[in-house]
Amino acid sequence: MKKIIIMILLCPLLLLSCNKYLDIQSNNRLVVPNSLEDLQGLLDNSKNMNLNYGGLGERSSDNVYIPLENLNTLAVESKEQYLWKETVYNYANDWSAMYTTVYNANLVLEKIADIQRDSGNGLDWDRIKGSALLFRSAAYLSLLWTHSKAFDTNTAKTDLGIVLRETSDFNVKSVRSSVEQGYNQVLADLHAAEPLLPTEAIHTMRPSKLAVYGLLARTYLSMRNYKQALVYANMYLDIKHELMDYNDQGDVKASVNYPFTIFNRETAFFTQLRSSTVTAAYSSIDTLLYRAYGTNDLRKQLFFKITKGIINFKGQYTGALALFGGIATDEIYLTRAECLAREGKLGAALADLNLLLEKRYKTGTFMPITMMNATSLLDTILLERRKELVYRGLRWMDIKRLNLEGREIHLIRQGEDGQVELKPNDNRYAIALPDDIIRITGMPQNPR
After folding, report:
1. 416, 69 in Cβ contact below 8 A?
2. Half-sphere exposure for 267 (CA within 13 Å, toward CB)
3. Residues 6+ positions from 30 with CB-CB distance below 8 Å
């Protein structure tokens, strides 16, 4: 494929201009992507499209614990973020990373509209357009989870959302949508992408119908629309339902630094969270969460290692230090189990939960969970969701949605000046936008 020199490859610089990004205008001398091959190459740029998803919510959640002596070694910005304080932070953050993805997707959508779809290129044309829509929706969802309040039907029309950019033109003014508008756009993009994509992609870094169903299940779950989340969890599991057995050395290598291989057989769509303090040697898993894993629960040894009193996470589905943020089958089983329990279908919910847990405990030690009342079963499923999906970028939104239902999840951290508490439904659950974005655009900042 011919070498493409395009503005999007400069996006980490461009995102500071104009209305909210650098003051760099389109240059007609630059070569722009005009063929389907070019557009696919743009979407296959995994650094911008797959490997840079927002991790700020995860490191703000109760999964993470940093001892005070280690906290004092952090840069001021990282320390203040950990303590949920107002902090001045500018470029090179979750916001700019996700809008790089959005820019790429918008550029592809604009350029593909100029390419005639015909019988010879139809499959490629559809796949590329559907992929761009999915990547844009995934970026928007990540931004909503990080920088907006949880979806509440009573306030979503007025709660501050994100910027919904529908063009690659930097001159178009940035305006914050409402939370409702943001979620509607995510859903619209995913529903538009679904008929265009193959059921399963040739590689899990590429979008597919499976990825659509997984993201729809995630989106509806975060909106607390459990009926629709169940619909798409079922559609996913009708196609892909195989789980790894953590006892099987073909699936898991317990003796190596990172026991799980990249692109393992549970992975349907591969994305990675941005590097952060979560994965650093001075960051620990929450100790209460660690103690929640039973002695025969293989996740306790496969997910964690203890070094000098610090409980480090090593259970990434990336096969390396970076955190996995993509769609995997274990998440979908837990989503379905939760939705079934909420609908009162306790037997089916219990079956999904036991199916998963049997493959997480040492062979011969798992005692299936027996029937319990709806409240107890839902509590158990939510605990197992947290244990199974730790450091997947899901906990921050889970806390927000569950607190809307009265779960009263209080987050407490220790700083130099004593304890800091984040109470349920606090405004700080909508993490502040970067200061340079507010300064350049004049958009309203999240209330503190």
Report:
1. no
2. 25
3. 5, 6, 7
* Per-residue pLDDT, 1: 45
- Two tokens at 194? 């679904």
Given a cut of 60, whether residue 45 has pLDDT beyond it is yes
Contact call for residues 209 and 197 (beta carbons, < 8 A): yes
Name the burial class of residue 281, with classes exposed (0-12), middle (13-18) and buried (19+) by CB atoms within 10 angstroms of its CB.
Answer: exposed
Burial letters 72-98, b for 16+ CB under 10 A, else e: eebeeebbbbbbbeeeebebebbbbbb
Cα–Cα dist 102/77, whole Å: 26
Taking the C-alpha atoms of residue 12 and residue 109, their distance in angstroms, rounded to an integer, is 20
Q: What 3-state DSSP class applies to 387?
A: helix
Number of Cα atoms under 13 Å in the Cβ half of residue 212 = 25
What pLDDT band is residue 278 in, cutting at 50, 70 and 90? low
- Residues 14 and 27: their CA atoms lie apart, in Å, by 13
Q: In the Cβ-directed half-sphere of 131, how many Cα atoms lie within 13 Å?
A: 31
Indicate if the pLDDT at residue 27 is higher than 50: no
DSSP string, 319-384: SSSSPB-SEEHHHHHHHHHHHHHHTT-HHHHHHHHHHHHHTTB-TTT--PPPP--HHHHHHHHHHH
The CATH code of the domain at 7-267+321-441 is 1.25.40.390
Say if strands 418-422 and 411-415 run parallel, antiparallel, or are unpaired: antiparallel
Q: Is the CB of residue 445 less than 8 Å from the CB of residue 433?
A: yes
pLDDT, tens only, 148-180: 999 999 999 999 999 999 999 989 999 999 999
Identify which of 115, 271, 262 has the alpha carbon closest to the alpha carbon of residue 206.
Answer: 271
d(C-alpha 380, C-alpha 374), whole Å = 10
**Rounded CA gap, 337 and 346, in Å?**
9
